[in-house]
Design brief:
Elements: H1 3-8, H2 19-23, H3 26-35, E1 38-40, E2 46-48, H4 51-59, E3 63-64, H5 67-75, H6 83-89, H7 99-107, H8 113-117, H9 120-134, E4 139-141, H10 142-147, H11 149-159, H12 167-170, H13 187-213, H14 219-228, H15 235-251, H16 253-266, H17 268-276, H18 281-291, E5 297-302, E6 306-309, E7 312-314, E8 319-323, H19 324-327, H20 363-380, E9 385-386, E10 393-394, E11 403-405, E12 407-409
Helix pairs in contact: 6-13, 9-11, 9-20, 11-15, 13-15, 16-18, 16-20, 18-20
The structure holds protoporphyrin IX containing FE.
Protoporphyrin IX containing FE binds next to α15, α16 and α20.
Length: about 400
C-alpha cells in the first residue's frame, strides 16, 4: 500500500467533497475497493468502486434513473417546484425508457461516427486560430484560453448559436457542476442553480423564435420541427435537452483536455514519447480518459429488489453510485500498474463515457476534439511548460473533475 493510501486510512471512506479527495481521489478509491467495494454512504446509497459492479449496474435493466422519485426522496416533495430540478427531470440523461428512447432518438443522428469525423477540419481550424492568437503572447491559461474555447465553439456550431452571441458563452461561469454531486445542495446553491437555469431558458427561448423564422442546418432547428409535430417532444423537454447538450458538450471535454495535459506534464517520459511518436495520440486519449476521467461518477436506482450485487442485497428504490474513476483503476481489469500513465497501454476501454443505454452521446466527438487539441498543441508549442504542475487548483466539484486554471508558458 503506498503512502497516500496510508494517509487516507483514518478518514471517512467516501467523503467526495473533502479538498484532499478532490485533489487526488485515487488512494481513497483503492481503499474503497479493498475494504468495502459496495460501501453504504452517509445518505444510505451504495457506492460501487470495483469495475465488475460498476460495469454491471450501468448495463443491467433492473436499474434505471427514477429521477423524480429519487430526488423527492432526497429533498422532500416540494423539490420538483424548483425550476432547476424540474428542468433536469426532462434531460434524456435522467429518463428511463420509453421517454429516454424517444428523446435520444431525436438527436442521435447528429452524433454518429461519420458526422463527427466530418467535423475534423472545423475542429482543426478552431484550434489553429486559437493558437495563432495565443502563441505570440508566450503564456496562457490552458483551461480558459485553450481547452474551454474549442468544445464551446463546436457545441455552439451544432446548436446553431449565432456567432455574435457567443462571447456570452465564452465568458460563462463554470460554477454549475455542484448540482451533479452526490451530496445535497444547500438552499443557496439551489437558488443559484435556478437563476442559471432561468437565464439559459430565456436565451434559448429567444433563439427558438429566431430559428422558427430562420431555420438552419442545426440541432435546435431539428428539435423545433420535432416539437411542432406535437407527439415527439414537449416545449419543456426541448428547452431542458438543449441546456443538457450545451452543458454536456463542453463541461466534460474541457476537462479531458486539461486533465490530459496535466497528466502528460507530470509524466515527462510519456510527454516525450508522445512528441516523438504523434501516432500514439488516439491511444493516449483513451489512457487520459482512464487515468483521470473528467466524469467520476454516475448513479442508478434499483427498479426492483435485487438479491446480490457484489455481495449486497439492494432493495427497490435504493441508489447505487458508480465510481467510474475507481473502476478505471481496478487491478482486476488493469493488472499493469493502473496508477501509472502509460499511453501505450493496450485495450484501455475506460468506463469514463458510461455504459448501457445512456452511453455518452458525445463520446466520439469528445475524443476527436481532445485528439486535435492536444496533438496540435504539442506540435506547435513543443517547449511549453506548466507553471505549477505539482499543485494545480482543482474545481470544487466531484462528479465533474477538472482544473480551475492551468497556467503555462513557453
Ligand atoms: C470527455 C468528455 C465526456 C465525458 C467523460 C462524458 C461522460 C458521459 C457519461 C459518463 C455519460 C453517461 C451518464 C450515465 O450513464 O448516467 C454521458 C452521457 C451523455 N453525454 Fe457525455 N461525456 C463527454 C462529452 C460529451 C459531449 C461532447 C457531448 C455532446 C456534445 C455529451 C453529451 C452527452 C449526453 C447527451 C448524454 C446523455 C445520454 C443519454 O442519457 O442517453 N457528452 N456522458
Amino acid at each position: 500500500m503506498n503512502e497516500h493510501v496510508q494517509s487516507a486510512r483514518t478518514e471517512p471512506l467516501f467523503n467526495p467533497l473533502a479538498p484532499e479527495f478532490i485533489r487526488n481521489p485515487y488512494p481513497y478509491y483503492e481503499r474503497l475497493r479493498t475494504m468495502d467495494p459496495m460501501h453504504v454512504n452517509a445518505h444510505g446509497a451504495f457506492v460501487a468502486s470495483r469495475h465488475a459492479e460498476v460495469s454491471l449496474v450501468l448495463r443491467d435493466k433492473r436499474f434505471g434513473k427514477d429521477y423524480v422519485d429519487r430526488t423527492v426522496r432526497r429533498y422532500g416533495p416540494k423539490i420538483m417546484e424548483e425550476p432547476v430540478f424540474r428542468s433536469m427531470s426532462h434531460w434524456m440523461l435522467q429518463q428511463d425508457p420509453p421517454d429516454h428512447t424517444r428523446l435520444r432518438g431525436l438527436v442521435v443522428k447528429a452524433f454518429t461516427a461519420r458526422r463527427v469525423e466530418d467535423m475534423r477540419p472545423r475542429i482543426q481550424q478552431i484550434v489553429n486560430e486559437t493558437l495563432d492568437r495565443i502563441i505570440p503572447l508566450g503564456k496562457m491559461d490552458l483551461i480558459e484560453d485553450y481547452a474551454f474555447r474549442l468544445p464551446v465553439t463546436i457545441i455552439c456550431d451544432m446548436l446553431g448559436i449565432p456567432e455574435d452571441n457567443r462571447e456570452l458563452f465564452y465568458k460563462g461561469s463554470r460554477d454549475g457542476g455542484r448540482i451533479l454531486d452526490p451530496v445535497p445542495l444547500t438552499p443557496k446553491e439551489i437558488e443559484a442553480g435556478n437563476a442559471a437555469n432561468m437565464m439559459a431558458a430565456m436565451y434559448f427561448h429567444q433563439l427558438f423564435e429566431l430559428r422558427r423564422k430562420q431555420p438552419g442546418d442545426d440541432l435546435i432547428t431539428q428539435l423545433l420541427q420535432a416539437e411542432e409535430d406535437g407527439q415527439k417532444l414537449t416545449n419543456e423537454e426541448l428547452t431542458a435537452n438543449i441546456i443538457l447538450l450545451f452543458g454536456a458538450g463542453h463541461e466534460t471535454t474541457v476537462n479531458l483536455i486539461g486533465n490530459g495535459l496535466l497528466a502528460l506534464h507530470r509524466n515527462p517520459d510519456q510527454l516525450a514519447l508522445l512528441k516523438a511518436t504523434p501516432g500514439l495520440i488516439t491511444n493516449a486519449i483513451e489512457e487520459f480518459l482512464r487515468y483521470d476521467s473528467s466524469v467520476q461518477l454516475t448513479g442508478r436506482v434499483a427498479l426492483e429488489d435485487i438479491e446480490d450485487i457484489g455481495g449486497k442485497r439492494i432493495s427497490k428504490g435504493e441508489a447505487v453510485l458508480c465510481l467510474l474513476g475507481s473502476a478505471n483503476h481496478d487491478t482486476a481489469v488493469y493488472p499493469d500498474h493502473p496508477e501509472r500513465l502509460d499511453i501505450t497501454r493496450p485495450n484501455v476501454k475506460p468506463l469514463s463515457f458510461g455504459g448501457g443505454i445512456h452511453f455518452c452521446l458525445g463520446a466520439q466527438l469528445a475524443r476527436i476534439e481532445a485528439e486535435i487539441a492536444i496533438a496540435t498543441l504539442l506540435r506547435r508549442i513543443p517547449d511549453m511548460r506548466l507553471d505549477d504542475a505539482e499543485n494545480p487548483e482543482w474545481r470544487p466539484t466531484f462528479v465533474l473533475r477538472g482544473l480551475k486554471r492551468l497556467p503555462a508558458s513557453w
